[in-house]
Amino acid sequence: MFTVLTLFKEVYYMKNNYHKENLKENILILTVKIIKEEGYQSVSVRKIANHLDVSPTAIYRHYNSLEELFTQAIVSVSHEFTNLLKTSLKGCQISPTQEIATVGVCFVNYATTSKNEFDFLFLSNYSLKNVSLNHKSDYPLILFMDSIINQAIKENNFKYSKEILFNQLWCFIFGYAVLVSKKQIELNEELIDATVKSFLTR
Amino acid sequence: MFTVLTLFKEVYYMKNNYHKENLKENILILTVKIIKEEGYQSVSVRKIANHLDVSPTAIYRHYNSLEELFTQAIVSVSHEFTNLLKTSLKGCQISPTQEIATVGVCFVNYATTSKNEFDFLFLSNYSLKNVSLNHKSDYPLILFMDSIINQAIKENNFKYSKEILFNQLWCFIFGYAVLVSKKQIELNEELIDATVKSFLTR
User: Fold this and answer.
1) Under CATH, what is the fold of the domain A74-202?
2) Is the predicted ipTM greater than 0.90, yes or no?
3) Among A1, A53, A57, B72, which is 20 to 30 Å from A185 by CA?
4) 8 Å CB contact of A198 and B195
5) Which CATH architecture has domain B1-63?
6) What's the pLDDT score for residue B18?
């Protein structure tokens, strides 16, 4: 009896511990999955709890609120997106200015092919506030943009404010991406090329 | 009895006719009101019918679908918005290039102060598709933009494609407006000035 009870306790402990250790991660993985497949508006604590077969209270033990969960999901989705942008440059022998244009085209395409992720990252209430190169940020997308903009600034002997350049590029590419995804204008890669060049060579 | 019946018939006819004549207009006015106060997502045929004390069928007699009603509402709201933009230029002794920048600032402010109208005009499924100066359009906003862009092109001896210039301005100002309304960046009028100039003087 003693042995069986010990064994039972051990298994119970392992199962519980396993659950505890992975639940936080599993909540985040499932949240990102729902965001991608159905859109961030479809995520709810009840839905996550049902899917993972736990109580809503168990969810709140790991994330104080849906907002805290979304904040983690933003980091995760933007990390994936940054890797996609980096991949678009891999193996390309192009100038830093051309790199910005290539990333711009990739960004516009992402708004159409990954609409749910794009809406969550850039058009939801959970999007990063005050996007700026001046704020120290560990948002991987900003760090990546900062690094390619720095190289393009060197290449073009650009003498004006980096922050203004960043905002110009950011507003233009973001506006382009939203308008293409809403089918209000069509993607024209040469237009992106020409605009990036006009910002960098004044 | 004959006189009373005639009178009754006349009053009934007048009332009915009054209703008929104004219902189409009243449906549109109410739709625009709900869009402004609650957002376009709150509009439904049932809600309009309840407010106007008619049956949903009476609504469908004038508008085949909610989409047809929204298409009319887009014209109405964009007309008001265009008048607002025109007013922002009234009495200003400024150059055509400066006019574009002023309209740009007004546009960005509108996205914040009239968020519901902005979302309906530019971020909904009912927004005008394929916005372009090439397409003959009676969308008053496009006609107005076309006229001030033509003047700025003359002023700057601009030699490149008008369509490309329009898309550059449109994507930049639209992106700026959405990012400011989502509190992702702050409005900086000088940045809009500098960007409009950089597009026009190459």
Assistant:
1) Tetracycline Repressor; domain 2 (1.10.357)
2) no
3) B72
4) no
5) Orthogonal Bundle (1.10)
6) 47
